[in-house]
């Protein structure tokens, strides 16, 4: 068969394999987080499935070197993708209650392996179809892997730079499955029976996928946005007997405010604002790392109308949601779309108050914002009489290692650090813990009380994924 037909097909299927791999991380994020464990599982399973596909495809090509079989494999890979999209909402929640390592591997196998094995079979098949004699095998192999790898590069870039920012992940994957199936069926137009059977399979699986992948909207849902980093939902619901507007990132509440007064709806947010307000000198320059729904910055602006407010967050979608749903005043807030650590490394300002609130997203605590080197940068940008407060989430005794390590590392930069457990929750429950650079009130406890068996986190060694494992398991149970 002509290279003008086969090589574009190899390019497209190569792109498809990487689009599927990259987008699977977003599919898994609400259930397993964006941890290194999940990423390693996805990469390992994809490489394993491709290896199996290479072996099976090579042997099948030697036995049945027919173009009809090649197009059948392409079509079947597309149907496999649509079936994955259809059934993922059912099996992923079941796997999320397992140990994160076991659940992540099983989820990767079920969601990725079938389609990836089929896609892996295509390259050796094309080599067999194109090679007329052994003298040309090397050249043809190089050409096939060139087009396949180039397609993978393009697919990777499209997934990260175009598809995720602009479209729902489920729709992209469903479209991917449809495109692959249609390409395969187009090559089988001379086999009417097989052609129509594949189209029927596509229609059924795509219909189920559309129904199951639709984002559930309840009466409380006001808006849903797919950002480059998470699915963001605006929800209005009752908290403490009062209606509140909240932001939900994946499955975790990021904050919100009461509709009747505009006050922060969650205790940790109110506690942070009250702690800052307790100091006798009004701050003139405030920095908040982690925007969420801008609850804390907005409340601090109300209390300190003359202060300069800078908010740093890596997610560009938060500002547009903040302006539309949370009353963010862009005239009063300097909004910086940037990684928090990069901001500290490049800014030449010093701040009276620094709020570190980028750690409450349980499924994706950024390790590089918890290390000794990071807190040293924070200390450098804190004014001589300044104050630093950070929020993290944990549960005792399950996550004592996580909390103890964060507290111990924070204390390396701020020796007078203190800790306040927020709320009255008992053991074995998720709760917020505030860590401050110095004691703002008598009820705050010395940092030493929470260090336990914790160790100092560094850029070289910060195993947050391991420390998070019991917390993720507890969250799944609750």
Describe the structure.
The protein has 478 residues and is α/β, with parallel strands linked by helices. It has two domains: 211 residues, Growth Hormone, Chain: A (Up-down Bundle); 257 residues, Vaccinia Virus protein VP39 (Rossmann fold, 3-Layer(aba) Sandwich). It has 16 helices and twelve strands. The strands form two sheets. An eight-stranded mixed sheet has the order 7-6-5-8-9-11-10-12. The longest helix is centred in the first third of the chain and has 30 residues. The relative contact order is 0.09.
Strands of the widest sheet, in order across it, are: 7-6-5-8-9-11-10-12
Structural class: alpha/beta
Largest sheet: 8 strands, mixed
How would you spell out the order of helices and strands? HHHHHHHHEEEEHEHEHEHEHEHEEEHH
* CATH class call of the largest domain: Alpha Beta
CATH homologous superfamily designation of the largest domain: Vaccinia Virus protein VP39
* First-to-last CA distance: 57 Å
By CATH, the topology of the largest domain is Rossmann fold
Total strands: the figure is 12
Q: Layout of helices and strands, plus pairs?
A:
Blueprint: H1 3-32, H2 36-63, H3 67-95, H4 100-120, H5 122-130, H6 137-166, H7 169-186, H8 192-213, E1 221-226, E2 231-239, E3 242-249, E4 252-258, H9 267-277, E5 285-289, H10 295-303, E6 308-313, H11 317-325, E7 333-337, H12 340-346, E8 351-356, H13 372-380, E9 382-394, H14 400-413, E10 418-421, E11 431-436, E12 445-446, H15 448-451, H16 464-477
